[in-house]
Amino acid sequence: MDQRISLINKLEEHHNLTKSEWVDLIAQRTPQLAEALFQRAAKVRQAHYGREVYIRGLIELTNYCKQDCLYCGIRRSNKEVNRYRLSDQEVLECCKEGYELGFRTFVLQGGEDPFYTDERLIPLIKKIRYLYPQCAITLSLGERSKESYQALYEAGADRYLLRHETANHEHYGKLHLDNLTAKSRQESLWQLKEIGYEVGSGFMVGSPYQTIENLAEDMLFLKELNPQMIGIGPFIPHHATPFHHQKPGGLELTLFMIGLLRLMLPKVLLPATTSLGTIAGDGREQGILAGANVVMPNLTPSIVRKNYLLYDDKIGTSDEALDSYKVAKEAIESIGYQVVVSRGNSLNVEICGKVT
Ligand code: SAH
């Protein structure tokens, strides 16, 4: 126990560990150690962000996808999916409703859908930018070309979420078909940063074939990337994917990783994700208590929501936007935190390549 506590001390002081130290700390975690970690993580989060929790309005733009990721319910081979695309009008209605509820960040997420060319996305982004000049526009549309990232940034997008999924190249290969590589995913993240986006990355906890070493590599990669936001959540099997029979990722390990991320990158934004809320009724609350400070309620029109199923039993699929917002707000308030009307910028900003 003492040796593990001293690793947590080191992490808190130096904001980094070596690969073998990460492995030791994660492999030898205990409930008592987790408790100590969460207390430190809550203190660090409190020092930078107080008791404020930022909300992001998630708009699931399309469930068409040209990719075939083995874990994902909207992979192209899944013929059970009723495919949909939101029109510009529908997206703008989601933004309007979200704005009225207090959202100041809109996240447009979707499968990799070739229908959404730059020519289609640019006018939509410009319209949102024009109507909501004080809101952040976040995109999460998978891998695109550098030119496309640049064009969408110039149209008014500020942030891009692209989880690296797993930093280990071999492990990445076991979760995706050959056309997708860890190298190109990571290159995209560096390109997005270079363009000037605030970047979000992250990984699934307990994805098939994941080892503790892989998690250690995820920590090292994220330290190097130094993103503004890190989204992690447990892997949850989807019945119509090749991984339908695989074990889901654990609540306890996910919470432990959230605590570690908070100590490694004190100012990073950490969402308590929908998948965390799916594996445990109070998963999002527990995520906040472990060090998270963001939640992403769903603004997608209720008639198409049930078709954006990345995994089984996803929460909130029959809700209206108002319900998703209320449920999240009540959960946060029940543990003594507040939802704030704010863009919720990351304090993890780099000026001229230097971390402030
Ligand atoms: N097409 C976009 C958005 C992907 S969906 C992109 O490529 O980034 C957003 C995230 O959901 C993924 O990055 C993945 O980490 C997560 N996800 C997908 N399937 C999942 C599953 N079965 N269990 C848990 N998380 C999953």
Distance between the termini: 33 Å
- State the order of secondary-structure elements, H for helix, E for strand: HHHEEHEHEHEHHEHEHHHEHHEEE
Kindly name the structural category.
Answer: alpha/beta
Whole-number radius of gyration?
A: 19 Å
What count of structural domains? 1
Question: Which fold name corresponds to the CATH topology?
Answer: TIM Barrel
CATH superfamily: Aldolase class I
Write the CATH architecture name. Alpha-Beta Barrel
Kindly state the number of beta strands: 11
Please give the order of strands in the largest beta sheet: 2-3-4-5-6-7
CATH class: Alpha Beta
The mean pLDDT is 96
Strand content: 5-15%
What hetero molecules are in the model? S-adenosyl-L-homocysteine
Helix fraction bin: 40-55%
Q: Uncertain regions: pLDDT < 50 for 5+ in a row?
A: 351-356
Oligomer: single chain
Major sheet description: 6 strands, parallel
Tell me, what's the shape?
globular
Total helical elements: 14
